[in-house]
Amino acid sequence: MKTDQILASLETKHPGEKEYMQAVEEVLTSIEDVYNEHPEFEKAKIIERLVEPDRIITFRVPWVDDKGEIHVNLGYRVQFNNAIGPYKGGLRFHASVNLSILKFLAFEQTFKNALTTLPMGGGKGGSDFSIRGRSDAEIMRFCQAFMLELWRNIGPDTDVPAGDIGVGGREIGYLYGMYKKLARENTGTITGKGLEYGGSILRPEATGFGGLYFVNRMMQEHGMELKGKTIALSGFGNVAWGAAIKATEFGAKVITISGPDGYIYDPDGICGEKIDYMLELRASGEDIVAPYADKFGDAGFVPDKRPWEQKADIALPCATQNELDASDANKLIQNGVKCVAEISNMGCTAEAVDMFLNNKILFAPGKAVNAGGVATSGLEMTQNSMHISWTPDEVDGKLHRIMSDIHRQCVEHGREGNYINYVKGANIAGFMKVAKAMIAQGAV
Length: 444
What we know:
- By secondary structure, the chain is of the alpha/beta class.
- The protein is built from 17 helices and 14 strands.
- It has helices at 3-13, 18-36, 39-43, 46-50, 99-115, 136-150, 169-183, 203-221, 238-249, 273-283, 291-295, 326-334, 350-358, 366-369, 371-386, 392-414, 422-441; strands spanning 55-64, 70-81, 87-93, 122-127, 159-162, 230-233, 253-259, 262-265, 300-303, 314-316, 339-341, 362-364, 415-416, 419-420.
- The strands form 3 sheets. It has a 7-stranded mixed beta sheet with strand order 9-8-7-6-10-11-12, sandwiched between helices.
- The longest helix is centred in the C-terminal third of the chain and has 23 residues, at 392-414.
- The protein is globular, with a radius of gyration of 21 Å.
- The two termini are 20 Å apart.
């Protein structure tokens, strides 16, 4: 495999798609050696096929606001790879959404889903629509208009969307309600549904819970434990909420959360009612964390900064892509950070990742760490197809086992002497499963 040539060709075909190129370069660099050990991969042009999505569906979404004014947004669904199962991945509603971001997310999702061992391919979608400042009625009308365009391209054995940034339980309800009306059937076509109509218990917390299960295994693998450690978190939505709950249960102290307006530093630890208040802030629709400091006087608010300047044993990006850069990485390393794990998708820039790996800091990528969310979505698909439901303990037990198995795969493929390169391990493990499935199915 000639990585430089493949990347140059992609850049020519898709200029300016920096997030997508970043994701592809990370995977190709990690798998190059093992790829070259398999001439059948080169013969079948696995990489050339794998770096391009199967299809991209683009559509306009016209909708009417509360004043009767018509708006037009863009909608997308990137169906990247279905070698091991139906396309599976979230929908993101945010003003920043573009094809580069969705292609990177769908590409990452392909390997993430492979790591779960569940039969799911990779996909992602969304719109440049922002829910901020919109009424429930406006959000409902947008979701219905979006689904009116998408519904023919999804299904329980074809493509199963879920939630992502800007798409929570409310939006999933509106989307599924419209899908059900159009398709005239109740199926597991969308995950993240409410418990009343086929959803899986623990799904809102699953990404954060799974992330901490992975981090706990990382620490144990290297003779450490979470108990007594300080943790810097970013974000304050469902992912950070779930991570804060589980970190506290493990005996760690969460000292930061963050939003677009800055971050909260709480040296006493974010636990109990403080964790619950995180979701109240998110539900308020204001998308800011400053009120936390007003409510809890022992906490401080630092405007327009990121939490990585605080001294912590563990750093967990939980917000969005590339939220932790080389400058942040340098601060964390100087402050003696022991472990960094992406609970957000590609939460660190490539330069930051290189700094952690070069300094032998324990670092794990999002495709491994945050797989708990899609794993629980996969469990929801299973429950829907079997017309059953599982208890919280059953779902949590299955999630725990899946995350432990993902960690095992990373260790198996990423060990370099006494150090485990989790980036390499996750990429190789996910790639090998997808590549072998593609080989078995021929040139399709």
